[in-house]
Amino acid sequence: MKLDETGALDVANKKAMEAELNELRYYLERNVEQRTEQLVRRIALLEHCNAALCDKLALARSELTALKQRPARNLPDTGDAGQNDGAGWLYAMGNWTRNLIGARAQYGSGSRCG
Q1: Alpha-carbon torsion (13, 16, 18, 24), positive or negative
Q2: What are the residue ranges spanned by the domains of the chain?
Q3: Helices 84-107 and 11-69: crossing angle, nearest 10°?
Q4: DSSP-H helix ranges across 70-79
Q5: What's the pLDDT tens digit per position in 39-57?
Q6: How far apart are CA 29 and CA 23, in angstroms?
Q7: What is the CB-side half-sphere exposure of residue 92 using CA atoms within 13 A?
Q8: What single-letter DSSP state applies at residue 103?
Q9: Left (φ > 0), alpha (ψ -120 to 50) or beta: where does 81 sit?
Q10: Residue 80 CA to its chain's centroid (Å)
């Protein structure tokens, strides 16, 4: 810093410092705007993924409720009354899995949430 005879800052030096401050302020504002845009996009993506997961969870819950309410006579007979519940449960879970895979295809398996 250069001082004049009175001890004040040189005008040219002061203007150079102001210009540098203005430039730094511009870059800071630009960086804040870019980061804010990135965060807004990430929040939107996370909200979309959350909604999709909530839909899948609701579908799984409704299918599980339907499985619980299904009478045992609708389950396939394995020939052994003691094992009918287990085999029927496996059969029902196979259907549930196929439905879940179908829901994944409906929502798009190529979407990335992360």
Answers
A1: negative
A2: 11-107
A3: 150
A4: none
A5: 999 999 999 999 999 999 9
A6: 10
A7: 22
A8: H
A9: alpha
A10: 46
Q: What is the mean pLDDT of the chain?
A: 75
C-alpha to C-alpha distance for 66 and 113, rounded to whole angstroms: 29
Under the banding of pLDDT at 50, 70 and 90, the label for residue 89 is low
- Token representation of residue 41: 């996009």
4/24: higher pLDDT: 24
> Is the CB of residue 39 less than 8 Å from the CB of residue 32?
no
Q: Pull the structure tokens for residue 30.
A: 């630009």
Alpha-carbon distance of 105 to 68, in angstroms, equals: 25
> CA-to-CA distance for 23 and 2, rounded, in angstroms?
21
